[in-house]
Amino acid sequence: MEFSGTQTMAAPIETVWAFLLDVNKVAACAPGFHSLEVVGEEEWKAVVAVGIGPVKAKFTLDVTRPEMQEPERMVVKGRGKAPGSAVELAGEMQLTALEQGQTRMDWKATVTVSGTIASVGARLLQNVADKGKEAPPSFDQPFDGSILLRTGMCR
């Protein structure tokens, strides 16, 4: 499943970049987030609960941030398993400083799900992705963890 989007945030690029670098803040705003463990430099193990239709699973994810070009570009990759299911994800975001202290984020993500979660049906999975794209960015508030992490992408 592939999706992408563009959001304009009411925060300067340095503030957005600093937020994205703080994995604890990013993880804390992830729907279904349970825990985060530092494994190494730019490597983490995260536990996230996911529900699609009647199927629920708790994924243990190995997450890395293999590429960064401060303060403009970041790549996040993850791979994980839950009983009977697996997921692989890759996300890339490009930040652009705009006038009046605003930042535009262009992002794209690819998610591959297999197993029980995938058998629920591609249509339900696509609906989940589409709903995630509808929410407006919440950078108009202080950076308090209210930003949603969606497939490795904060908004």
Keywords:
alpha+beta, seven-stranded antiparallel sheet, Alpha-D-Glucose-1,6-Bisphosphate, Chain A, domain 4, 9 strands, disordered C terminus, about 160 residues, 4 helices, globular
N to C succession of SSEs? EHHEEEEEEHHEE
Numbering strands along the chain, what is their spatial order in the largest sheet? 1-7-6-5-4-3-2
Q: Per CATH, which architecture?
A: 2-Layer Sandwich
Query: Strand percentage, roughly?
Result: over 45%
Overall 3D form: globular
Word description of this protein:
The protein has one domain: Alpha-D-Glucose-1,6-Bisphosphate, Chain A, domain 4, CATH 3.30.530.20. Strand 2 and strand 3 (43-52) form a beta hairpin. It is built from four helices and nine strands, in the order βααββββββααββ. The protein is an alpha+beta fold and 155 residues long. The chain is 21% helix and 52% strand. The strands form two sheets. The chain has a seven-stranded antiparallel beta sheet. The protein has a two-stranded antiparallel ribbon with strand order 8-9.
